[in-house]
Structure formats: C-alpha cells, structure tokens
Amino acid sequence: MHKILEYIGLLGILPVAIAEDEHKASMLARTLQASGLPVIEVTFRTKAAVRVIERITADASHITVGAGTVLTIDQVKEASDAGASFIVSPGLNPKVVEYCLSKNIPVVPGVATPTEIQLALEYNLEVVKFFPAEACGGLPYLQAIAAPFKNLKFIPTGGIDQTNLLSYLQSTEVLACGGSWIVRPEFLKESQFGKISQLTYQAIARMLGFGLLHIGMNSSSPKEAAAVAKQLGEMFYLEQRETPGSIFLGTGFEVLKRQYLGTHGHIAIATNFIDRAVAHLALKGVNIKEETRDVRNGKLAAVYLDMEIGGYAVHLLQV
Fold this sequence. Notes:
Elements: H1 3-11, E1 13-17, H2 25-35, E2 39-43, H3 49-59, E3 64-68, H4 73-82, E4 86-88, H5 94-102, E5 107-108, E6 110-111, H6 114-122, E7 127-130, H7 133-136, H8 138-146, E8 153-156, H9 165-169, E9 177-179, H10 185-189, H11 193-208, E10 211-217, H12 222-236, E11 240-242, E12 246-249, E13 253-256, E14 265-271, H13 274-283, E15 294-296, E16 299-309, E17 312-318
Parallel strand pairs: 1-2, 1-9, 2-3, 3-4, 4-5, 6-7, 7-8, 10-13, 14-17
Antiparallel strand pairs: 10-14, 11-12, 12-13, 15-16, 16-17
Helix pairs in contact: 2-3, 2-11
C-alpha cells in the first residue's frame, strides 16, 4: 500500500472540503492540523479547488492534501501541479486510474458494486472509496460486497458523521472514513474555524475512545505487593486475581510485584485503536517506548508512552 494511504489509515478520518474561497484555505489547513488531523481532501466541485490546493500546499507544508471528485485526466494534472498528493474519484474511470498509476499518484476510485470492485482489482488497487456509503445501504451492504475481496480496503464516504463513524472504523474492511461533516460549506463561508476545530477534536476523541482502565502501583517485592493488595482488597471489598508479575484487585487496581516503569507505577489507558492512538499522540510530540511493544497475533496490543504524568508511566492497551 502506498505510504500516503497508510498514513490516512492511521489518522482514521479524511475531512472532505467543498471550498469556494482560496483566501480561507490556509486557515482551514492550520485549523485541521492544530486540531489533530493534518490531512484534507479538497473536492473539484468548485472553480476555486485548484487555487485552494495551491494555497494549502504553499502555506501549510505539514498537511497532506488530496483532490476529490476528480473526473478527468486533465483534473488529475491540475490537481497534481497544484500540489495534491493523492486523487479521489466518485467512480472508477479507467482512464483516470491508468493515468494515476502511470505517474505513481495514489488514486482512490469510488465503487458501489462487486463488478466495480473486481475492476479495481484488475488494476491491483489496494484501496477504494465506497460511495455514497449510507445511500447504498451503509455498513451492512459494505460488509456484504467486501466479503469476497479479503485484501481490499475501503474509505466509506457519504452520510458518515459523528454518530456512525466508530461503527465503520471498527469494521476490518475499512481503512479510514471520509466525510464533510467536519468542514461543512457553511462553516467555511462564515469562517467558523472554531466549530471546525471542535468537530475535529470530537471526531478524534470518538474514534480513539480513550478511557482509564486501571491504576498500576509499583512495589519493592512480592511480599510488599501482597501486603498492599491485602489492604486494598479488605478495605474496599475487592476480589483479587494474581498473576506471576502482579496482583489485580477488582477492575481498577494492579499491584506490581516489583519496581517497574513510572516513579510510582502506571496509568493504564484503554483505546479503540492503539495504532491510531500512537499515530495521533506522535502528532502531539508524544512518543512510545519501542522496547515495551506487546504484539499479539501480529498486532500491537499494548505499549508504554515515553513519558510520565505525575510520577506515573502511561500504558496504552487495545480494547
């Protein structure tokens, strides 16, 4: 898979913008980037699309810009010359796909039927757009038509918003979700960048679903761990579950039998998508301790962040 498409998959959400005014393009890009989504699809539904892409690529170098609603080879050329790094189409136009592939431009054509999916596979495409997602039957229909095509990933777009975002992303067929609910045309027209920032923040929070899982407490020895666990258990009527390395009490505490990461212990944070969580935290300058990666069945299951908060290490866990 092309690295740009992999990056979009890690971000999880692809904001789609119908922009009429190139003078608001830079502020839009900076708003998305500052809010945690340094990616945007600018649609060719307006005469200003090329100028919007040019302005974003010139003024916001750290945001990945793609062109959407691309219908012709000429539009591909215009978008590419303006600085677009990927192409999205509402349908599968063989001429557009062939041209993009010949120029090594990542292209995501739209599909809605098994026949169109098979045509995409003829071009060895790994990612396609499922459009219009909700009008075609939503997630149940996508899962039905995707079933025979195990190695293909989809970017559903059309009718997706905060209410159904998570259900789509939790489907193994879905690479990321596209949508215009974050950057609505009226928001741009009225320069409501605060609203765009708020919706971006809410979408990322909804996707990652961070939540406290338990508090881990370090101890100097198994004997000390047993004493601490006994005190906590008896005081708060918590059932104990012992493992070789620690003692769990109820659902909220873990007493480690040794001094481990963190001055006092660790905070275990659950997330819906640990790979995406790592990617989004990296955008904030928060990295992971590579040596703590816990990979199960080929997928990252847990990892510690390379930091402490209030004397506690932070442990991410996939749920």
